[in-house]
Structure formats: C-alpha cells, structure tokens
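Task 17 of the worksheet. Students: predict the tertiary structure of the chain below and write it out as structure tokens. Keep your answer in the requested format; marks are given for formatting as well as content.
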Amino acid sequence: MSNSTHNIQPLFDYVLIKPLEAETKTASGIYLPDSAKEKPQMGEVMAMGPGAFDEDGEVMPMVVKLGQKVLYKKWGGNEVKVGTEDWMLIEQKDIMAVMA
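Model answer:
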C-alpha cells in the first residue's frame, strides 16, 4: 500500500480502486476534451477489507488481490479523494472481472 492510502483501510468486502486513465483519443484519432471522456471502468486494487461475514459469522475471504487490474460496474461504488485524485471504494460484488 502506498503512503497515500495508509489513511484508508476498507472494511468488510470493500475494495479501494485507483481508476485507470480515461482514453484521451478515439480510435479514429480525435482528441476528446475532459468533459467528453467517459469514466473508466477499469482500475487497480490499492487496498481492501478482510472480507464480509456469511450467515454463520465466518469471514468469506476476498477474491481480488492487491495490485490486480479489475473491471467494475459503471455505477457501482463511491468516489473518494486520495490526495488530489478521485478513486473508487466499491463492494467486491461490484467487481465483474480480473484483467489478465
């Protein structure tokens, strides 16, 4: 965990994700202004909680690992400020895939 994330320790099955940079240029070579860029749905796992509790009170382990690149739901999670950047704090269930 980097110095900027030491003050954020997610609880339960929450995952702190640093979004990857949005594309600045279309496939045809047109540069996009900041207002036209879509929010990225891919990011890097920077911190995570220990896992959620199941019905028996046992902790269900986390599936994702620190440093993995993941694809998450477009409208999932909450934006949080980490230094000067906007990162995402989302539940593990809102992560749809791990990027290879």
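Marker's comment: The beta strands are 14-19, 42-48, 69-72, 78-82, 85-91, 95-98. The chain has one domain: 3-98.
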